[in-house]
What we know:
Layout: E1 8-11, H1 20-30, E2 39-40, H2 47-54, E3 59-63, H3 65-78, E4 84-88, H4 94-99, H5 104-113, E5 117-125, E6 132-133, E7 136-140, H6 141-152, H7 157-170, E8 174-180, E9 184-190, E10 192-196, E11 200-201, E12 205-206, E13 218-223, H8 226-230, E14 234-235, E15 248-253, E16 255-259, E17 263-266, E18 269-272, E19 277-289
Parallel strand pairs: 1-2, 1-3, 3-4
Antiparallel strand pairs: 5-6, 5-19, 7-10, 7-17, 8-9, 8-16, 10-13, 11-12, 12-14, 13-15, 16-19, 17-18
Helix pairs in contact: 2-3, 6-7
Amino acid sequence: MTDLSDALFLFNPLSNEGRSSASWKKARSLRDYLPEKPIDITKIDNLVEFIRERNPSVVVACGGDGTINSVCTAVYKLGSKIPVAVFPLGFGNALAYCLGVETIEKALYVLENQDRIENCDLFSTNIPEFPIAVFTVGIGFDAKIVHARMNDRYIGFRSYVLSAIKSIFMHGTSKLSVKIDECVSLEAVASALVVTNAPIIGQNYVINENARLNDHILDCILFSTKYAYITNLRFKGFKHPLYNELNKVRFSAQKILVNGETYVQVDGDPIIYSKDVEIKVIPKAIKFVCNQKSEIITSVTPFYD
């Protein structure tokens, strides 16, 4: 077992509508070395300096996708390749599925062994509240679903269904303009643009089976209609009968500039942003502790070997 005496456990008690505390108690019942009161990340003013002062061998992000974003942003700004491990205490836990730690039991095993550490990419954005994206940026209908879910405080699987239904009637297409790698411009009347760093979003929903956490590019899908976005979703390996390439445009880039839409979501957190959105890939920006390939249950591989 790896020495975890100087591991830094950063816990978000607000994850999954406050249900993360019960999940942490479950983890402690399995391993008594876990601290009874992990560090509450919501009470830290400067996370970068806090991690710098502690100088841990590994940082454990205990929460949901937003917590992972905060931890990865701080570790990246620190300029140190401290490995980041994930304890999936949120609802979506999208990245946890890619890392093969979608359960507490798996997360504990991987943390204790740390026999596979992957250098992964991040995205930078020009959005002040979210300068770093770990696995996805959605613009348009994709972001509208997140806004609806957050505003109405939906939780659980029904949040996706109810929020999507509500968003269908409240969100139309927009004229999106995308500048790709500062040399090619694309204009389209479309519903959503999804930029991914990982093949799945939410609870193992496949959004882009070609995306990889270490391919050093932005994997982008432009959905011409809201219905093209919805029929793209594949839940836990189930392929929707309407899943196809109709009404979708796929492209890859290292940098894009997008305008024409104000609804944006970054790693599942919504924001209204009235300026052009700039997104750039940051290759090999973060180290993730992850499971062996055989233990990753997604229907597509999240890494290039």
